[in-house]
Amino acid sequence: MGSLEVPNPSLWVETTERAPHGTASLPQVVDVAVIGAGITGLTAAYLLAAEGARVAVVEAGEVCSGVTAFTTAKVAALQRTTLSDIRSRLGHERAQAYAEANVAAVDQVASFVERLDIDCDFERAPACTYTASEDEVSSVEEEHDAASAAGLQTRLDADTELPFGVRAAVWLDNQAQLHPRRYCLGLARAFVDAGGELATRTRALDIDEDADGVSIRTDRGDIRADHTVIATLLPFVDAGAFFARAHPYRSYAMAVRVEGARPSGMYISAESPTRSVRSTGDGWVIVGGEGHKVGQDDDTRRRYEALEDWARAQFGAEEIGYLWSAQDYETIDGMPYVGRLTSGRERSWVATGFRKWGMSNGTAAAHILTDLIAGRDNPWAEAFDSTRLAPGASLKSLVSENANVGKRFVTDWLKTWRPRPAESLGNDEAGIVDLDGDTVAAYRDDSGELHSVSGICTHLGCRVTFNTAERSWDCPCHGSRFDVDGHVLQGPATKDLSEK
C-alpha cells in the first residue's frame, strides 16, 4: 500500500517509470495470495512461484509504491547497533539468528540481481556504524562484540571517508546498496514470467481462514487461497494485535551533490539524531536520519531543514536534488515478527517490524515464510516467531492498554480542544478547525481550496495529526496515513477518512 503521487517523491520514484497495472481480472483461486508488492511480498511471491505454486500478489497501489520506494536502500547485516540491542534484550541465540538471516538476505539479493539480470545499480559496499561522540564509543564496541559473537567478520577501525572526526567505527565488508524500485520492478517481472498473477490497484479489506483455506476479501472481489501472506508493513487485520505490539516511526532522507569526494561506504551513526550516508552510482550522496515517532512533531519540515544544514556543513552540499521520508515499525522487543498471524491459524502468515532495515529483513522474512508454507524447517523461524510476547506481557493486556490510549486521545481532544475557525487557515496550512459547527481536519492548498475530512482515524479511532512536510494526516497511535482528501496512503487503516 502506498502512493507514488506524493509531495516529496524519492530519488527512486523519480528515476523509474510506472509499472504495468498487472492482470485486468482478479484471480479467484490460487495456492498462495500475497498481500503487498514491496520487497517482502515480491520476494516471497517469486520464491513460491519459482517452486511451482500458483501465486497472486494483491497490491492496493502500484508495484513498489510503499515504504520500499522511500528507503535509503542499504542491504546490510550490520545495522547501526541492532545486534547488541537484540543480544541485551533477547540473548545471544536470537542475535545470532538475526545476523545469519540478514547475511543470507544480502546474498539472496545479490543472487537475484545476477540470475534474473536485474538492472538496479547493485553495488557491493562496506557497512559502517560510527560515532563522533566519546559518549557512544562503548556502543560501537559493543556492536562489534555482538556481531563477532554472532559470526560476522566485523572490524573496528576509526579511519573513515567521512569529512569529520570519528571516535570509533565498526565495519562489515561486502554488504550491498541498490536502486530499490528498479530491483522490485525486476522481481515483479520475474514473478510474472514464472507464472505469477499481479493484481495492482486492488485493496485487500479482510481475510477469513477456515480448515480448508483462506478467503481474501478485496474491493474487486474475493480470492480463495490455501495460504495468504500479509506483507503490508503492518497487518491491516487486527488479529494478532500487531498494532499494539509494534510502534510507527518516521525518518527522512535527501539526495545532495557535494563539492568533494563522495564516500563509497554505507555509514550510520550510533548517536542520535541519527545520520546515515551513502552514495549512488549517478553522483548523489544520500543523507538520512531525524527519526521520530509518528505524529509527535508539530512541524516535520524542520527535519528536512536539519538534514540540509548538516549536509551543507559536513559535506559542502551544493545542490539538494530530492527529499523524501519513510515509515517503519519497531516491535516491543526489537526483533521482527515473522510467522503465523496468530497461534491458532495455520494458513495466514505475516512479516512486520523491520526497524527501518526492510531491504535485508524483508528478504529474510520472505525466505522464512516460503519455507514455512512449503512445510520445511527454517533455522531462523523460531527466533523471529510472530506469536511471541514480551516477558510478562499478555495479548489481552497489550490490546486493552492500546485501546485505552486511543480512547483517551480522542476523549481528551473532544473535551479540551477549542478549534479555530476554518476561515483562519492560510494557504498551505492545516489544522483541526471548526467548519460550520463541526470539528474537522482541514487543509487549505496553495490555490485557496479547503480540503476538509474527519479527524478520526478509521482504524481504531485515534485523532490524526498533520504532517507538514508530507501534507498528510497521520495517526500517532498505529501509523495509518491519509492524504488531504482522506484517501488511505498507508495502513493499517483500509477505509478513507470521510469528507466533511
Provide structural commentary.
The longest helix is centred in the first third of the chain and has 24 residues. The protein is an alpha+beta fold and 500 residues long. The protein folds into 3 domains: 185 residues, FAD/NAD(P)-binding domain (3-Layer(bba) Sandwich), CATH 3.50.50; 143 residues, D-Amino Acid Oxidase, subunit A, domain 2 (D-Amino Acid Oxidase, Chain A, domain 2, 2-Layer Sandwich); 95 residues, 3-layer Sandwich (Rieske Iron-sulfur Protein). Helix 2 packs parallel to helix 6 and helix 3 crosses helix 5. The protein contains 11 helices and 25 strands.
Number of strands: 25
Contiguous runs where pLDDT drops below 50 for at least 5 residues: none
| Overall spatial form | globular
Under CATH, the homologous superfamily of the largest domain reads FAD/NAD(P)-binding domain
Broad CATH class of the largest domain: Alpha Beta
Helices, by number, come to 11
Average pLDDT value?
92
Largest sheet, in brief, is:
9 strands, mixed
CATH architecture of the largest domain: 3-Layer(bba) Sandwich
**Estimated share of beta-strand residues:** 25-35%
Key traits:
Rieske Iron-sulfur Protein, 3 domains, globular, FAD/NAD(P)-binding domain, D-Amino Acid Oxidase, Chain A, domain 2, 500 residues, nine-stranded mixed beta sheet, eight-stranded mixed beta sheet, 25 strands
